[in-house]
Design a protein that fits this description.
The chain is mainly α. It is built from twelve helices and no strands. The protein has one domain. α2 packs across α12, α3 runs antiparallel to α4 and α7 packs across α10.
């Protein structure tokens, strides 16, 4: 199995997110600017369906899959039919049919945690890869974003949601067309950005504090999601320039 690229190029991003964590977290939960459209990341349907999917993830049953499917719609993963460009999701039954055979693997992978990933030689990547490549959620060749958001709701202790607007732009990564290269990029981002942050003592202390206050920080539902929130906050605060 091919190893991800050397993580050296990601180290400035990791330092940036650790050093600015409190400011970026605060920005994520700030009210949106008074001018321009308001997009809330931590309330309304985005929060409601995310929490429902998170709370039922151990079951991985049709009710859970419906919550995951609804969460992706609320996260703007299915553009209206009259919009020519943008992501489109497959029918729910196709999504469900692709996931149910993977249920034993998903249950096994639910025991894995981001905090114990040691890098390219982590022994469970083959199992995670089979889940990533076995599901069907998005139409078209670009799968990484949709797959990551599904897996973030099924394997919340291990997988972060990844998107174009924040994650990939902040990391200056383009989304490949073929699934094998998308998988390698997905793995690289987890190994080189999310796992190193999850394992830093400074982050662990912040996470413990934020996670204990769900009333103020309702979108802080897991270690990978909190790191994702930091990336969103960082981009909202400072854009996608160099760290």
């Amino acid at each position: 199995m091919k190893k991800p690229n050397d993580c050296t190029s990601f180290e400035p991003k990791v330092r940036d997110l650790i050093q600015g964590a409190e400011r970026y977290h605060e920005r994520f939960y700030d009210k949106q600017p008074s001018s321009g459209p308001r997009v809330y990341f931590h309330k309304g349907p985005k929060l409601y369906f995310h929490k429902r999917a998170f709370e039922t993830h151990k079951a991985c049953d049709p009710k859970h899959l419906e919550s995951v499917y609804a969460a992706l719609v609320s996260w703007d993963m299915n553009r209206p039919m009259d919009v020519n460009k943008g992501p489109r999701m497959v029918d729910f039954r196709d999504f469900e049919d692709s996931l149910m055979p993977l249920k034993p693997k998903i249950h096994e992978a639910q025991g894995f945690k981001l905090s114990v990933i040691s890098g390219a030689d982590w022994t469970h990547w083959d199992l995670v890869e089979s889940i990533f490549k076995g599901m069907t959620i998005m139409e078209g060749p670009k799968k990484l974003v949709g797959h990551s958001k599904v897996m973030a709701h099924m394997l919340p202790d291990l997988i972060p949601p990844i998107d174009n607007r924040f994650t990939l732009k902040y990391l200056h990564k383009a989304l490949p067309q073929d699934l094998d290269r998308q998988w390698l990029l997905f793995k690289e981002i987890i190994c080189c950005v999310f796992a190193p942050i999850a394992q830093r003592p400074a982050f662990k202390e912040l996470y413990k504090r934020w996670r204990s206050d769900q009333k103020r920080f309702p979108m802080d539902t897991s270690v990978p999601k909190v790191i994702d929130n930091l990336i969103v906050g960082r981009v909202l605060l400072k854009g996608v320039g160099k760290a």
